[in-house]
Amino acid sequence: MTEYPFTKEELLENVKKMNSFGSRTTGSKGQNDFIAFLKDEIHKMGFETKNDYHTFDRWQAEKSSITLHTDTGDVDVHVSSPFPYSGDTDENGVTGELVRVHAKHMGFGIAHGKIAVVKVKDFKSTYSGVAFDQKRAFPEGTTIPKYYKGPVAAAFVKFPFLKVAAKKGVKGVICIWEDMSDAMVEGQYLNFILGYQGIPTLWVNSHDGEKVLSAAEKSQSATIVLTAEKEKNAVSESFCSIIKGVIPNEAVVINTHTDGVNCVEENGALSMLAMMKYFKEHPPQRTLIFVFVTGHFRLPNFKKPGGMSDQATSLWLYDNKPLWDGKHDHIKAVAALTPEHLGCTEWKDVNGVYQKTNDIDIEEVYTGNKTLDDVYFECIKDREHIRTVTLRGHNFLHFGEGQPFFNVGIPEISLVTSPDYLCAESPTHEMEKFDPQLMYEQTVTFIKLAERLDEMTAHQIGKADKYTLGIGKV
Fold this sequence. Notes:
Radius of gyration: 23 Å
Oligomer: single chain
CATH topology of the largest domain: Aminopeptidase
Strand content: 25-35%
Distance between the termini: 36 Å
CATH architecture of the largest domain: 3-Layer(aba) Sandwich
Shape: globular
């Protein structure tokens, strides 16, 4: 039996260390401290790091509040979370009449000079086959939900057009989550895939949202406060570290991102540290390039020029072609591995109560072609804890930081479990939902995948498939 130079207890301690840096949104002190920790650990192993520095305008919410001005006095309303990069106020906030806006995309004209109130409903009838195309599953019968739901999906698809609201002269926006429990939506750092919107916006749960809706029906006013820390030309870095093999012109790239908000988003870098410890003791034949990117939580600023449906690793690929594109005397990346969101248990709303529903949230794994799909199932056959499906890139959607490799034709295996608490900031860092044993087993799986790929020729690995189109299988 193979012995690994790390334990689940050591992984857990590293997760706690990561949590100690606080929320690690892009360019924040928390992320910078986490990156410094990662690089220090890598340097202790005797490996060098290569850095890529980027600048962007950073925005981070500080104070937020909602006060309703009613006939019987002022009433404070709990804010579930600020809307990232929405907009901000001074300490006094902005005051205006509350107006219910039903057409949350283009109907903000009725709220000129006022505060708009919109609902963001959970999905009920959108078939998952629009975004996913499932290949295989283990145990047999495992499947992603036929109707994908939850705050991440709702915020990414049903968000209000805040730039339209700003253009129409709206003072601020209150977004009310609907059909999701108060506990599920608390602290959600959403939506993070939009550019700066130019209008202060706050999220409110459905229970407290009833107070806001009632005030809007009576044409009452409110004051919203959203102050922010703003930094022009903030610096954030991606970096990589190389374990050289005896095959000089080929590599497997192992990547994840370093920005995140809780114990699972994003802990992939800690899994990669463990992998590096293993491969220091077991040198590979083919070079391994470990890539730690920034910008996943600020995608408008951290994608390759002209990139549309892509992730932050696309910028690293753009900046580091000699390490992967195989042209001239460049290294050719023959495959990629992407660990994200390890150790996730499943929590869902059941009859309105947010609770644990399974010891393992479904491990959604993209496999870039049939060969890699077979390799994945070969490498998980001895797992004690497993609940997984494999997926194709579908309708030009491929979630997670493995997508940029798929987009340039490099086959990859990407773990991108998507729990409803993925983007939740909380005092506990969501540790009550984390399983270190599961993270350990998933990390070992990635080591086995890297070793199996090391035994295969580039021809055997093959090229990445293309996106499938239409209604996918779920």
